[in-house]
Amino acid sequence: MIAQTPPSPESASVAAERPYYPNTSWRYGLDRLFVIAIWSAIAIAIAALGLLLFDILLDGLPTLSSQFLQGFPSRSAERAGVYPALLGTIWVMLVVMFVSFPLGVGAGIYLEEFAEDNLFTRLVEININNLAGVPSIIYGLLGLFLFVRLLAPITGGRTVLSGGLTLALLILPVIIVATREALRAVPDSLRQGGYALGATRWQVIWEQVFPIALPGILTGTILGLSRAIGETAPLIVVGAVAYISFVPEGLQSAFTVLPIQIFSWASRPQQPFHAIAASGIIVLMIVLLLMNGAAIYLRNRFQKERL
């Protein structure tokens, strides 16, 4: 070890007498430039989104009517409706919600609170993080093999249940990661206090940790469901049809969803179909806002109960 010699009194006095001129103007100028760049990026994104929404509303509102909401697809744009696709979307999203939420939250709680830190757990965590970035068409191929062909006696093949389970697999990594991050945000002192009072691990998690982490978990669930409601590629692979003249009557019925119906109308060369495609986009956004609004209401309600 090399011994460090202390500075001499002469050098210390010289350093103490040396004036210090902080270049604060350059730093503050750089901060202002960074803030301007951030707000410019936000303004450009909002302007582009607003222009897109304005164009959709301008084209879709004239054809948005009760006949459009209650009608069935037709070869004529004047008689075409979105009713089967709307009900198919609701059916599929109900399956996605009731399957992905308990499985994703349960897996997140187990991995964060109960699983031991070993090689197997680390491999599972790495795979979950990687699956969050896998293209959706891969999940469609997995759903085609697993739910449409292998489990056809249970799912019924190309049905609502197969489509919902495929989309549930798609958003499971998002919910699991969000659940783990919400649980990590809960202070460990709360867990230790529960253990000190004699509570079991499950009692501490269920009665103390989980209610505090629930708003963050619901936020991740909102993001996952918002992604699932707009997916088209996995459902096309699974077997959702673009033209359907009846409404789904159960989990084993054939189906279509709003994104596929919108894509079918937008791909036609006739201009009237482009107008009703814009109307379908408006309906899809309304369904998305209602679903997210209900989830945000529940999240805010749980937050107020914990205050």
Give an account of the 3D structure:
- The chain is mainly α.
- The protein has one domain: Orthogonal Bundle (MetI-like fold), CATH 1.10.3720.10.
- The chain is built from 13 helices and no strands.
- The longest helix is centred in the first third of the chain and has 37 residues.
User: Could you say how many structural domains there are in total?
Assistant: 1
Dominant shape: globular
Considering DSSP H and I runs of 4 or more, what fraction of the residues is helical? Answer: over 70%
- CATH superfamily grouping: MetI-like
Spatial extent as radius of gyration = 27 Å
Compute the number of helices: 13
Q: Low-confidence spans: pLDDT under 50, at least 5 residues?
A: none
CATH class reads Mainly Alpha
Report on the biggest sheet. Answer: none
- Examine the coordinates and then state which fold CATH places here, giving the name of the CATH topology: MetI-like fold
Given helix and strand content, the structural type is: mainly alpha
**CATH architecture grouping:** Orthogonal Bundle
Strand content: under 5%
The topology string of helices and strands comes to HHHHHHHHHHHHH
Mean pLDDT across the residues is 84
